[in-house]
Amino acid sequence: MNNIHIKRGFLPLASLPAFEAAARHQSFSRAAEELNLTHGAISRAVAQIEERLGVDLFVRRNRRVYLTRAGERLLRTAETVLQDLDRAVEDIHRHDAQSPILSVSCEPSLAMRWLMPRLGSFREQNPDLNVEMHMAGGPVDLLASGYDIAIRRRDFGLPDDYYVTLLWAEMAGPVCDPDCWQNILACDLSNARWLHSRTRSDAWDIWKKASGFKGRPASEQYFDHFFFALQAAVNRLGTAIGSLPLVIDDLAAGRLCAPMGMAPTGVDYVMLSLDDPKKDRRITRFAHWLAAEAQATEASSKAVIG
């Protein structure tokens, strides 16, 4: 085999970013600014690739550069290669136990009403670990999505190979503004407008079955998401089925009351991971913090609703 063919078969990969930036901008100067290099460094990098390939990648006219057909072809490939490398490095970095990033997927209502208000304390205790939040509910493919862990309301089947860490058993009951309960509803749930959500359309039925309540609402209103129904209750628009821990902060602050108490729904909140949490220091730290916050929430719940 001819040696020149061997030489031309291997491009100087370190020069590809310089070529890609120069080709994208069609300017060596702008490429140099982007990459924090000198104009000469960009020119030398491009010259290295042209020497290896034996073809011109740019046509230089009037202090401007334009891609040749060979340059356009190489640019398409270089963009794909560099993007693939970036994704691979990010994926390796993210799923390395030494990575400073922990990717967490969480039920939207739980994330907004309970988890995110508490993440500041985790950050203070773990300044070297950044939690990357993703909001999603229901079944989750941890491998395909790239999430390190997922926090879910366990109302669906789980793969056998997932590690499942129990966080708490859900409790739920009617919640409304305390003043409305006393002065407008006259302490009678049948006088209330019942707030429903399409994402948990059976919430009232589950609570009625668990509590034995036989009454009916004075009126009803529907919302697209559970979070909106809970916020509507805070805003004195009616009475919603609130679950713990989603309404614990509102109960503790007096924005809501749970006049009928809370009953078990039979559903647990869990943390899901592909690997044993003990094998990844990031997940271990987050799991310990999460467990402590869950215990604090449970203690607060007992103090508020008994």
UniProtKB/TrEMBL annotation:
Gene3D superfamilies: Periplasmic binding protein-like II, Winged helix-like DNA-binding domain superfamily/Winged helix DNA-binding domain
Alphabetized SUPFAM superfamilies for the sequence: Periplasmic binding protein-like II, Winged helix' DNA-binding domain
Keyword Nucleotide-binding: no
Origin: domain of life: Bacteria
GO biological process, alphabetically ordered: DNA-templated transcription
Domain HTH lysR-type: residue ranges: 11-68
UniProtKB keywords: DNA-binding, Transcription, Transcription regulation
Gene Ontology molecular function terms on file: DNA-binding transcription factor activity; sequence-specific DNA binding
Family the entry assigns: Belongs to the LysR transcriptional regulatory family.
PANTHER family: HTH-TYPE TRANSCRIPTIONAL REGULATOR, HTH-TYPE TRANSCRIPTIONAL REGULATOR TRPI
Identification of the protein by name: LysR family transcriptional regulator
Organism: Thalassospira mesophila
Lineage, opening ranks: Bacteria, Pseudomonadati, Pseudomonadota, Alphaproteobacteria, Rhodospirillales
